[in-house]
Amino acid sequence: MKELQHLNKYFIKYKGRLLLGILITIIAQVFSLFAPKLIGNSLTVVQKYIDKEITDLAIVKDELFMNILIIVGASALAAFFTFLMRQTIINISRYVEYDLKNEVYQQYQNLSTNFYKKNRTGDLMNRISEDVGKVRMYAGPAIMYSIRTITLFACLIPLMFITAPKVAIYTLLPLPILSFLIYKLNRAIQKRSTIVQQFLSKLSTFTQESFSGVSVIKAYGIEPQIKQTFDEMVLEGKQKNMDLVKVNAWFFPMMILLIGASNILVIYIGGKQFINGEIEFGVLAEFIMYVNMLTWPVATIGWVTSIVQQAEVSQKRINEFLDVVPEIQNQIAEATPIQGNIEFKDVSFTYDDTNITALKNVSFSLHSGETLAIVGKTGSGKTTILDLISRMYDTDHGVIEIDQIAIKNLNLNSLRNAISIVPQDAFLFSETIKENIKFGKEDATEEEVIAAAKFASVHENIIGFKKGYDTILGERGITLSGGQKQRVSIARAIIKDPNVLLLDDCLSAVDTETEEEILTNIQRITENKTTIIVSHRISSAKNADKIIVLDDGRIIQNGSYDDLIEEDGYFKELYLKQLSEKDL
Ligand SMILES: Nc1ncnc2c1ncn2[C@@H]1O[C@H](COP(=O)(O)OP(=O)(O)OP(=O)(O)O)[C@@H](O)[C@H]1O
Q1: Which superfamily does CATH assign the domain made up of 342-583 to?
Q2: Which residue in 244, 169, 166 sits closest to 200, CA to CA?
Q3: Angle, CA 307 vertex, CA 173 and CA 2 arms, to 5°
Q4: Which of 113, 378, 384, 554 to probe ligand 1 with, by most ligand atoms within 8 A of CB?
Q5: Per-residue pLDDT tens for 211-259?
Q6: Span(s) in the chain for CATH 1.20.1560.10
Q7: What HEC string does 59-118 produce?
Q8: Sheet harboring 419-422: ordered strands across?
Q9: What is the Cα–Cα distance from 544 to 365, expressed in whole angstroms?
Q10: Which residues, judged by CB distance below 6 Å to any ligand atom, belong to the binding site of ligand 1?
Q11: pLDDT per residue over 173-190, tens digit each?
């Protein structure tokens, strides 16, 4: 229960509702006890009339009529309060589920890029949905059934012992066995259903991937192999499901067997006592009803125990993520204005998961409004520079300053708000094109969206679609070409009107003519913005004020375009190579 203590803050938050729920549960339970007692009384009255102990039929009728009225009234009230009980306690569990999901989601938002690299998306999704769902079972049904069972026991057991102690003992005897067996059975069911669940995630990952990669599958003609793998997986799934079904099938027969055994004991012991004149006939009937009333709550003890155990495991998994301290922390509460003067002072950086040192003693400076082009072989550390500027990671060694302040001492929000980044793999949401562009500026007007799209040279493409800017992208809509995606992603960055614009090889999929057009536009609007362009193409570096050439994490050349095409080295080689390609 240690892990589940995390939920106490929510129980305190909803303490009013919880107390009301407990009270209602107790009331509902008390009203449900009326019926067996009064049915027992009624049968005793009838028995006494048959035995001629009562001779006046009117008294019998009056008594029966009164009992019926009370039974109907008490049952109606019990039903009404049971309804209210569910409305309060189950509702609380939904509130707790909602709050917990929000808490986990908020934590996911705060966690750094590194965390996402170390944990699989499926696992993140599972903890916020499956695990929170299991914890909800503890916050609602488990609490509700526990209160019901405790109330029932507290009222019923003394009542049974007062009415007929010997029959009471024999009635209660098989119940702990029932509870234990249900507990054991539930554990076995849960073990097998976890296996089925895990298998289902595997199967859905496989099918999802085979649908997403259908073009590759078709192009390589491997449909038969995929079909065979799928068949084998489904067969495996069938076996796992059969294991579960076999255990599940024991549940109700076992319940019925144990209820039957309790009933037989009551009838046998109670019957003997009745024959000996130790108890009245009505008491026998009353006890048979008690057995049936007790069976389900006793069974729930086993059920609730396994729910709590599962919730504990799930909450542990949730707490593991909630306890992670985000690597990137905002240390400055107040907003800090950002001009965009960037300076790297002897910066080195190693990715802790791969242990790759992506940057080695990198130093450069860039004034606000200047453009820097970063050129270099693949894997030389270009993207890492951009990630460090936007504080996706913190440096191990050296300092990055913006406006002469170390970036760790800048307000993280201000920093990221001042930066627009166009990543290498343009990611667009399954929304309309307009929504995707407006992602950079939520309150952007239609005109601003169009201006940004024109700027990124994608407007003509967009209006060519039947629904224009309202065209839905992704799985539910159309698929944009690589170049179109890159340009929509540029429009999204531009509309934000940032002080610092970071372009990570984001023109690689557009033709040189469009590249030229976009670069001219960028130059026009970035006069007072700091811009960094990462590229493999010399043409992208042409208008830059400064160029640095990276190789294996080190700056091997730096200078202006004119300087570098004259200087022997990687840049000149690339220039000559791309020049000759152009001539071909
Ligand atoms: N998230 C990461 N985790 C671990 N290692 C990484 C990560 N990102 C990059 N690396 C490694 O760091 C080195 C530099 O990568 P980076 O992406 O900065 O290169 P790049 O110059 O941008 O390459 P490209 O031109 O191919 O985009 C590479 O060796 C890469 O394998």
Answers
A1: P-loop containing nucleotide triphosphate hydrolases (3.40.50.300)
A2: 244
A3: 110
A4: 384
A5: 878 889 999 999 999 999 999 999 999 999 899 889 888 877 887 887 7
A6: 3-322
A7: HHHHHHHHHHHHHHHHHHHHHHHHHHHHHHHHHHHHHHHHHHHHHHHHHHHHCCHHHHHH
A8: 419-422, 500-504, 530-535, 371-376, 546-551, 554-559
A9: 14
A10: 117, 351, 353-354, 356, 358, 376, 378-384, 424
A11: 877 887 788 788 878 887
Ligand 1 atom 8: residue of nearest CA: 384
> Ligand 1 centroid vs 384 CA: distance in angstroms?
6
Q: If we measure between CA atoms, which residue out of 495, 380, 374 comes closest to residue 434?
A: 495
pLDDT level of residue 540 (50, 70, 90 thresholds): confident
* Residue 414 phi, psi dihedral angles, 5° rounding: -60, -40
Q: Which of 354, 359, 360, 378 to mutate to test ligand 1, by most ligand atoms within 8 A of the CB atom?
A: 354
Distance 500 CA to ligand 1 centre (A): 22
ipTM over 0.85: yes
Topology of 3-322 in CATH? ABC transporter transmembrane region fold (1.20.1560)
CATH code 3.40.50.300 region(s) in the chain:
342-583
Whole-number Å distance between alpha carbons of 222 and 225: 5
Place of tokens 């569910």: 86
CB-based contact 25:87 (threshold 8 Å): no
> Which residue's alpha carbon is nearest to atom 12 within ligand 1?
358
In the structure encoding, which two tokens stand for residue 124, read together?
């993140």
Q: How far is the CA of 428 from the centre of ligand 1 (A)?
A: 22
DSSP state, 478?
Answer: B
Q: Whose CA is nearest to atom 23 of ligand 1?
A: 379
Q: pLDDT tens, 394-418?
A: 998 999 999 999 999 999 989 998 9
Q: Are the CB atoms for 37 and 162 separated by under 8 Å?
A: no
* Residue in 380, 504, 532 to alter for ligand 1 test, most ligand atoms within 8 A of Cβ: 380
Ligand 1 atom closest to 353 (CA): 4
Closest atom of ligand 1 to 380 CA is 21
Q: Which pLDDT score, from 0 to 100, does residue 581 have?
A: 65
